[in-house]
């Protein structure tokens, strides 16, 4: 098979990384995106009023243990150190609203219970006096949280936020969402455990533009793909919505979407990048203050986003795949359809209907490009999926 003309639908990380790999292998690559910019959901741009670099589709922090991926992103842009330290408001045992540190750590526990426990004392206190050990086999998010941390911490730090984020009661969500004890018995408030963490000095869009900057790649923005365009290419890599490729003929895969309410402030609005709101009566989940994502910059003005989560309608941007029982059944029907379709490989967060962090997206894109190139050179037909959606 002498395939040489490839189309990438989507100029996000998936399309850019696969496209770059194939362009370097000597193929011609066209990248189309419906939006007016590259970068997909990682897109960043300077706010015209304040000059602050804004994460337009929600805050993105790069964190990984994958040294090849870390070297890859650093070969296209400069990353500066950034540690995500999240705060939350919630009602303490007194019923008063206070600001706490997340993830729930020894500081949070001591502040919440008005104690001065050391790590082993706190561990003993949570596991013997707080955790509901009568729950032997937790099936739901609520059961799991109650078994791990008990009612007080669950209600203060998990319940309200989860209800707002997912639009349902935690007793309707699977236990698998809370895989391990979501509490630290030390004062480590770094949100992520990963070895490499940082933020691109000039934003993610510049990084993705650098990945796409290759003589064999042409980028067409504000170009909506439809399937009739596929005939012009030898193969399509599609990072749009899997159900969208099929015109939603079996129904729509469910997503949560986000609304961002922008406001500006003179000075420092909240003193940190991310403030969660644990109380269910506050309608938004969090406020992000974007200048704190670039602590090496200095700005008088500040731009913040109040973030609201709700069910995604056909006119909204799909953010978080729901992946409950109903969606997984529908997903499996779409996967079966896709497996019978030739000339396209479904990639990325929308193409495989999974939540993927950026480092995982890049890892999968590199693996996909390599496996696809091997299939080509050994005369095998390209696959619909190189990463299984189910
Ligand atoms: C709110 C939020 C916060 C996140 N925060 C983090 C974080 O802190 N750290 C982290 O590592 N990851 C984070 N992520 C994950 C990150 O956004 C993804 O890993 C990444 O965006 C996946 O890239 P992608 O190329 O697969 O998809 P996308 O970025 O969605 O790119 C797909 C592109 O395809 C285009 N497209 C779709 N259909 C068509 C069509 N028919 N025609 C033309 N163009 C089309 C879209 O316009 C889009 O630009 C976050 C995700 C969300 C939702």
UniProtKB/TrEMBL annotation:
Keyword S-adenosyl-L-methionine in annotation: no
Gene name tied to this protein: glf
Coiled coil: none
Required cofactor names: FAD
Name by which UniProt lists this protein: UDP-galactopyranose mutase
GO MF assignments: flavin adenine dinucleotide binding; UDP-galactopyranose mutase activity
Transmembrane segments: none
Family that this chain belongs to: Belongs to the UDP-galactopyranose/dTDP-fucopyranose mutase family.
Domain of life: Bacteria
Keywords from the UniProt entry: FAD, Flavoprotein, Isomerase
Domain annotation UDP-galactopyranose mutase C-terminal: ranges: 156-355
A Pfam family it matches: NAD_binding_8
InterPro entries: UDP-GALP_mutase, UDP-GalPyranose_mutase_C
A single cellular component GO annotation: cytosol
């Amino acid at each position: 098979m002498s395939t040489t003309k490839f189309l990438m639908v989507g100029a996000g990380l998936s399309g850019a990384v696969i496209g770059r790999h194939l362009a370097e292998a000597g193929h011609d690559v066209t990248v189309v995106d419906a939006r007016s910019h590259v970068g997909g959901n990682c897109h960043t741009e300077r706010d015209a009023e304040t000059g602050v670099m804004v994460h337009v589709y929600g805050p993105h922090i790069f964190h990984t243990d994958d040294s090849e991926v870390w070297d890859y992103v650093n070969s296209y842009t400069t990353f500066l150190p950034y540690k995500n330290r999240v705060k939350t408001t919630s009602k303490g045992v007194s019923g008063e609203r206070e600001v706490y540190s997340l993830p729930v750590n020894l500081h949070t526990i001591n502040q919440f219970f008005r104690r001065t426990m050391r790590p082993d004392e706190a561990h003993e206190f949570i596991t013997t006096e707080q955790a509901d050990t009568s729950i032997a086999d937790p099936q739901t998010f609520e059961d799991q949280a109650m078994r791990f941390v008990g009612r007080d911490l669950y209600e203060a730090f998990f319940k309200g936020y989860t209800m707002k984020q997912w639009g349902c009661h935690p007793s309707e969500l699977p236990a698998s969402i809370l895989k391990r004890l979501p509490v630290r018995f030390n004062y480590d408030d770094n949100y992520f455990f990963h070895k490499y963490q940082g933020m691109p000095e000039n934003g993610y869009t510049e990084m993705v533009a650098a990945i796409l900057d290759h003589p064999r790649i042409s980028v067409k923005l504000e170009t909506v793909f439809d399937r009739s365009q596929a005939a012009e290419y030898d193969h399509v890599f599609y990072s749009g919505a899997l159900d969208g490729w099929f015109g939603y003929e079996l129904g729509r895969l469910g997503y949560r979407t986000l609304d961002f309410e922008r406001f500006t402030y003179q000075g420092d609005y909240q003193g940190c990048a991310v403030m969660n709101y644990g109380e269910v009566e506050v309608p938004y989940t969090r406020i992000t203050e974007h200048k704190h994502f670039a602590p090496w910059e200095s700005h008088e003005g500040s731009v913040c986003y109040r973030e609201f989560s709700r069910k995604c309608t056909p006119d909204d941007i799909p953010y978080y795949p729901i992946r409950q029982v109903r969606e997984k059944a529908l997903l499996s029907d779409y996967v079966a359809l896709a497996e019978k379709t030739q000339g396209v490989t479904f990639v990325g967060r929308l193409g495989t209907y999974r939540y993927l962090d950026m480092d995982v997206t890049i890892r999968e894109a590199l693996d996909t490009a390599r496996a696809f190139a091997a299939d080509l050179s050994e005369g095998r037909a390209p696959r619909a999926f190189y990463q299984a959606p189910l």
